[in-house]
């Protein structure tokens, strides 16, 4: 059961995602948090923020991605941020509950991998070079052309 699939322009509430998948029939919950880090192997400087933008169909596609991994006995809550995120902020939350841990881990990982590969959300990586100047470039472009 998909209990949440959303894009958000405000900080993601991890506890709300966990609560959304809580169920008396579930003995396991797996939660993945993707956060903005201060480095990237291809960065020319220190990463200071990521600016996310989304295709108009991104919310619908996120729901479809969640539906594609759903099965009986699961509860799924997934959200992805858009807008400007500082280092340390959460960009994605994926919570999955099931009767057994193996299903929760497997479905959570599968959904996060599909979101990363298929959700038309793009990020502009803002870096600070050695002089303190900031510059940005688009990275990790998704499946739909920008």
Cα separation of the termini: 31 Å
Assign a percent range to the helix content.
25-40%
Largest sheet features? 4 strands, mixed
The first-level CATH class is given as Alpha Beta
Structural class: alpha+beta
**CATH topology (level 3) name:** Aldehyde Oxidoreductase, domain 3
Shape: elongated
* Total strand segments: 8
A few lines on this structure:
The protein is α+β, with helices and mostly antiparallel strands and 146 residues long. It has a single domain (2-139), classed as Molybdopterin biosynthesis MoaE subunit (Aldehyde Oxidoreductase, domain 3). It has helices at residues 14-21, 58-69, 101-118, and strands at residues 2-8, 28-35, 46-54, 75-81, 83-86, 90-98, 121-128, 134-139.
Lay out the secondary structure.
Blueprint (H helix, E strand, L loop, with lengths): L1 E7 L5 H8 L6 E8 L10 E9 L3 H12 L5 E7 L1 E4 L3 E9 L2 H18 L2 E8 L5 E6 L7
Parallel strand pairs: 1-4
Antiparallel strand pairs: 2-6, 3-5, 3-7, 4-6, 7-8
Helix pairs in contact: 2-3
Description:
With 146 residues, the chain is of the alpha+beta class. The protein has a single domain, classed as Molybdopterin biosynthesis MoaE subunit (Aldehyde Oxidoreductase, domain 3). Helices cover 26% and strands 40% of the residues. The chain is built from three helices and eight strands; from the N terminus they run βαββαβββαββ. The chain has helices spanning 14-21, 58-69, 101-118, and strands at residues 2-8, 28-35, 46-54, 75-81, 83-86, 90-98, 121-128, 134-139. A four-stranded mixed beta sheet has the order 1-4-6-2, sandwiched between helices. The protein has a four-stranded antiparallel beta sheet with strand order 5-3-7-8, with no helix packed on it. The longest helix has 18 residues, at 101-118. The chain is elongated and about 55 Å long. It holds the Pfam family MoaE. InterPro entries: MoaE_sf, Mopterin_biosynth_MoaE. This is Molybdenum cofactor biosynthesis protein MoaE.
């Amino acid at each position: 059961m998909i209990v949440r699939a959303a894009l958000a322009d405000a900080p993601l509430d991890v506890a709300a995602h966990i609560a959304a998948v809580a169920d008396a029939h579930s003995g396991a919950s797996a939660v993945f948090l993707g956060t903005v880090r201060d480095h990237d192997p291809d960065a020319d400087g220190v990463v200071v923020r990521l600016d996310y933008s989304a295709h108009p169909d991104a919310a619908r596609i996120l729901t479809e991605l969640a539906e594609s991994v759903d099965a009986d006995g699961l509860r799924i809550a997934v959200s992805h941020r858009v807008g400007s995120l500082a280092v340390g902020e959460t960009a994605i939350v994926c919570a999955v509950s099931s009767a057994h841990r193996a299903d929760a881990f497997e479905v959570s990982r599968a959904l996060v991998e599909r979101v990363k590969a298929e959700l038309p959300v793009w990020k502009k990586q803002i870096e600070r070079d050695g002089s303190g100047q900031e510059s940005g470039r688009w990275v990790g472009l998704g499946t739909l052309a920008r």
